[in-house]
Amino acid sequence: MKKISKLLLLTLSLGLVSFTTTGCLPKKVPVEKTRTVSKISMVLNTKESSKTTQDGITIKVNAIHPDNRNKFAGLYTKVSYWYYRTYRGRRVDYNRDGYYDTVTRQFDFNLVDYPAFEVKITNGTKHVLKFSNAVISVEDDNGNVYDALSKSDMPDYLSESINAHLGDTRKFHLKSGETKKLKAKTRKLRLLDNNLKVLPGKTVKAYAVFNYGHYTLKESKEFILDTTKFSLGLYEIPSKVNKAGIATKTTNFNFVFDVKVKDSIQKYTTYEYK
Question: Is the pLDDT score of 85 beyond 80?
Answer without folding.
Answer: no
